[in-house]
Amino acid sequence: MSDSPQIAPLLFAWYGRVGRDLPWRHTRAPYRIWLSEIMLQQTTVTAVIPYYQCFLARFPDIGVLAAAAAEEVVEAWAGLGYYSRARNLHAAARQVMELHNGCFPETLEELITLPGIGRSTAGAILAIAHQERGVILDGNVRRVLVRLFALEGDPRSSAAEKQLWLWAESLTPAERADDYAQAIMDLGATCCTPTKPNCPECPLAVHCQAFTQGRQDELPQARAAKAVPTVQQVGLLLADKRGRLLVRRRPMNGLLGGLWEFPTREVLPGATPEASARLLLQELGGSGSVEEAGKVAHAYSHFKLDLRFYRGKAGTAGYVGEGEHDWLTAAALRELALHGAHKKALKFI
DNA sequence: AAGTCGGGGTT
DNA sequence: AACCCAGACTT
User: Cα separation of A207 and A143, whole Å?
Assistant: First the structure.
């Protein structure tokens, strides 16, 4: 767009006054910038900070990360969510060691070939780590630009995305793209917020079409809400003679890959949860009845989980399931990289 | 283009 | 409850 407003100088001045002081803003090390960008995908700053510090203490450089076991990386990610990020981070670290001699790529094309790095994350790394003209389009920037240009319709549609990338490209300055990226993200996070934007203190208000039209509370237009199904499961707190409980590791790929959990199964259609729990107990080599322990509700973006836990006793035949498993004490369970919904069940033991 | 993939904070 | 978050990837 030839008529894009010159917002970069306004953002620089604002950022200098009220920009946030964040741990990853004290470095330009590509490894640390990369890690912060991956952790921050769809995740709030406050949630990331402690994970960022712990992860760096455990994996201080890309060589250490590449040499680690995949399970170890997932365990450092436990509780942060979107575990494919941890798998991709680990795979990308190995890729950089093998293909780039341990040196992080410095071009957009090479960055995007790394698993977990898309167009926006690559732009952020280019700008912040390499000080080049990287362009970003994250949730903050999307909201700022939708209001700045009063973009109608679903901002996640492919047509909107295309337009937003054009605007993002034209607004990004040739110099100080790093400051620009962090400033516009800060603006979206602290000023141009989803609800009740603080327009009186916004440095871009004079250029903002939504504000000019008094429609800053109507944009961006909300996405059409879709119904989310509820999955019914039963979980088993299966104790051996020493009181230790059975846990198993979820397969590395797929939902919550690599995390530990108590044995579960879906509630059979037409069956009661208790009958399904009894069946699960028998399938695992246990015996006798089950006792109701408590209920856990867990929400994901595309389904809800209704999980009822039962206590049971292990039979003398022992465990007959498949895959990696272990018998752990309550103390050990609290230290384990547990599936979030199952972490809630610790209060039942 | 639509679906998958978490967990927590905000409203 | 619904929405959002420094999105990427698969189908």
Answer: 15
A304: helix, strand or coil: strand
* Three-state secondary structure call for residue A349: coil
Summarize the confidence of residues A263-274 as an average pLDDT: 94
Smallest CA–C1' separation from A254, nucleotide: B5
User: What average pLDDT score do residues A152-164 get?
Assistant: 95
Count H helices and E strands in chain A, helices first: 15, 7
Q: Choose among A165, A104, A109: nearest CA to A135.
A: A165
The yes/no answer on whether domain A230-348 falls in CATH 3.90.79.10 is yes
Strand B bases near protein CB (under 7 Å) are: 1-9, 11
Which residues on adjacent β-strands are paired with residue A39? none
Residue spans in chain A of domains classed CATH 3.90.79.10 = 230-348
Please give the class, per CATH, of domain A8-212.
mainly alpha
A37 flagged as catalytic: yes
